[in-house]
Amino acid sequence: MRRGALACGLLLVATLAAGCAGETESGGGRDKAALVIAQGGIGDESYNDLALSGFESSTEKHGIEGSPIESADIVAQGEQILRRAATTGFGLVIDLEFSHGEILPTVAAEHPDVRWAILNTEVRGENVLSIMFAEHEGSYLAGALAAMMTTQTGNPKINPAKKIGVIGGTKSVGIDKFVSGYVQGARETDPEVEVLVKYSNTFGDPATGRQLASTMYEQGADIVFQVAGGTGAGVIQEAADAGRYAIGVDTNQDDIAPGHVLTSMVKRSDQAVARTVARFAEGRFTGGETLTLGLSEGGVGLTGFEHTKQDIPEPIRTRIGELREEIVDGRRDVWNVVSQGYPSWLTG
């Protein structure tokens, strides 16, 4: 999958470069859409792959010509790529890269005929749709589950220490939105549970993820939540090799190491992208709007413990359902570092 997708992305970059030389007209392609792939790239078995699946299915459904755009350095080349996409005939450009939030307002304003959408950050612009996820809500449930599981006895994957962990990609408010929710869920479930926090500083290095996870397991953690894109593949592999648990992220990663992925905190980037393509295809695209997808919208949430249900006592599964309902109906508040800043119990 990785090789085929990369070939497609590189072909598109080449096409963009050729088009840029002789074409400067903006937008207008109501039957053409592009998807800008984020750090970690296609093949991450996580955020990018899930978004791409939604993009491919929705463009096919609506008769839209869809093209992914991938770069070896999507952060440094962000402005160049967005400008090329704007002048290559795409009517819709969906950007998965959080760091492009600073440059997109300028590029979008210069190309008002193009419809733009960006995930994970809010961008102002009459032709820009911002899509946010309530990752902190789903991560709260993951933290609560881990805190309840780490005290279980009679499970060979659980040790006596009341200790769990979380590994983020880069240190940023976007990643710490997951981390804070996880830590809060654990603290409010059992204040005595210690949560180890580390950052890999990369989204595409499974070896680093494996090393960090190994250290956490050696320090006494028995469950590690990975929020590191492709780097997280190493976290999950180490969980299997060490006989412990990992918690997946973004897409359903339960099948990667059956029985060792306790659950996955799914972030439905596929739904977000599909909704955007549908709005564009049906002439319903509205710029200047922010769409938020949380627990109540089905935009985030835990998977159904397909391979671990026998490990999780029924009272714990029931309690997770209760916590979900408390968050959805507003009886339980979950801290959002993006809108509220950093809490005292999580250093910014």
UniProtKB/TrEMBL annotation:
Give every ABC transporter substrate-binding protein PnrA-like domain span. 34-309
Q: What is its main location?
A: membrane
What compartments host this protein? Cell membrane
Superkingdom of the organism of origin: Bacteria
User: Which of UniProt's keywords are assigned here?
Assistant: Cell membrane, Lipoprotein, Membrane, Signal
Entry's CDD domains? Answer: PBP1_PrnA-like
Query: Which residues constitute the signal peptide according to the record?
Result: 1-20
Any one Pfam family match given in the protein's UniProt record, by short name: Bmp
Q: Does the keyword Cell membrane apply?
A: yes
A GO cellular component term found in this entry reads: plasma membrane
Protein's UniProt keywords contain Repeat: no
Q: How does it sit in the membrane?
A: Lipid-anchor
Q: Which InterPro entries match?
A: BMP_lipoprotein, Peripla_BP_I, PnrA-like
What family name appears in the similarity comment? Belongs to the BMP lipoprotein family.
In its UniProt entry, what is this protein called?
Nucleoside-binding protein
